[in-house]
Amino acid sequence: MNDLPKQPRAPDPANEFASDNSQIDPRDFRNALGTYATGVTIITAAAPDGKPYGLTCNSFASVSLNPPLVLWSLVVYSSSLTIFQNASHFTVNVLGASQQALANKFAKSSDDKFTGVDWAPGLGNAPVLTESVANFQCRSVNRYYGGDHVIFLGAVEAYTYNAKEPLLFARGAFGRFMADDERKKAP
Predict the structure, then answer these.
(1) What is the pTM of this model?
(2) Which pLDDT value is given to residue 9?
(3) Cβ partners under 8 Å of residue 127, min gap 6
(4) How far apart are CA 46 and CA 54, in angstroms?
(5) Mean pLDDT, residues 62-91
(6) From CA 118, how far away is CA 114, in angstroms rounded?
(7) What is the mean pLDDT of residues 116-143?
(8) What is the largest CA-CA distance in the chain?
(9) Residue 91 and residue 125: Cα distance in Å, rounded?
(10) pLDDT value at position 22?
(11) Three-state secondary-structure class, residue 8
(12) Any residues with CB less than 8 A from the CB of 61 and at least 6 apart, and which?
């Protein structure tokens, strides 16, 4: 008698990453990933003609402190993919708890995302949103293809931050961070 857990057969390495060969249900996998709370960012860049582009993103992560490197990823069928692939720089703008409307605005396809948004051109003309909790101005270092996304690696060349409360995202909804001492004060 064998009490070992049953494991699925090892995938054929040649087809392991083919989208139709996964034994994992994509919707259920997305639900599981949604249990991990992330920050919410707007990634920005400028087109060669100077037009600003931006999109809401929660796939931002730090990679290295020395040298200072960060990454984020973008789905391969994004209409903005070419802009970000060709941009010399991008800015990661970390949103605050009061910026849910801005996150929603930049999550939708639109030609007027920057209308009414306070921003200044940063390195490589990538927009820096002035009301963000933090921003990281990055030189594009490399791109990697992973499944249905392109992973952008950036070398941080400038950054700012403040003490405002960050916006969080988990289980398909926005939320707030409440520290233990705040929880104790809540009625």
Answers:
(1) 0.83
(2) 54
(3) 44, 46, 52, 54, 91, 93, 114, 119, 120, 121
(4) 9
(5) 96
(6) 8
(7) 97
(8) 69
(9) 9
(10) 72
(11) coil
(12) 70, 71, 72
